Amino acid sequence: xxxxxxxxxxxxxxxxxxxxxxxxxxxxxxxxxxxxxxxxxxxxxxxxxxxxxxxxxxxxxxxxxxxxxxxxxxxxxxxxxxxxxxxxxxxxxxxxxxxxxxxxxxxxxxxxxxxxxxxxxxxxxxxxxxxxxxxxxxxxxxxxxxxxxxxxxxxxxxxxxxxxxxxxxxxxxxxxxxxxxxxxxxxxxxxxxxxxxxxxxxxxxxxxxxxxxxxxxxxxxxxxxxxxxxxxxxxxxxxxxxxxxxxxxxxxxxxxxxxxxxxxxxxxxxxxxxxxxxxxxxxxxxxxxxxxxxxxxxxxxxxxx
Length: 305
What we know:
This protein is of the alpha/beta class. Helices cover 41% and strands 14% of the residues.
């Protein structure tokens, strides 16, 4: 770290939920590529309870020990004013801001028939409001910078999930929030390019607190050979997306696992019928059955046979 030869040399990045798992891996990787890193984490449990600021401090210490630049930040991503203070902290410490990585999230697994309103609201609050608040403040800064004639060369990196792209049993709220984040990314990319801002999203698969509980067997540590589920495997693509080299890439969702980088194809128009007249309700069934027979089979919802 600190050699000045990394692909993010001199760029400043805010990473939310950066004290462990994927967020920590991103923070270390950005630091190793010369970025100034704001390690944001309030240190909550997987369900969003409690506070432990020492978790973010430990990641900052790791980055600095390797020769990098980092500060810790303990603001709540769902608080509008706190999100503004995160941007201000980055500017105060490093003089500029180039990248935000919206990584923080919670999970409240529950079959839909047992889901509660509080769990639903908490999941939407952290994922959707959390993604909104920081990005909105960052965009304010970048838009003003662009109007001053300075190229922001800025990046929004959001976190969706395979659960959001194809659905997941017992994760109705989480899947809904993550699907919303994918759609948000498309809108941000379409609207913000004029200001020098790109927006992309990740659907990462790696060993984290969240996945170890849900997919224990798949997430076991590998003793020999390539550890596919090591979160550090996901980080290089995230760092590249945050670099100056990725300015031509926006509005994409990348599914990342081990050494695989997959570009999601998104919703596309499928087979259709058009009789150029109003349908009789009794005739619709045959038309739909024909369409179902012609479509490309969708990916299965996670947790189904």
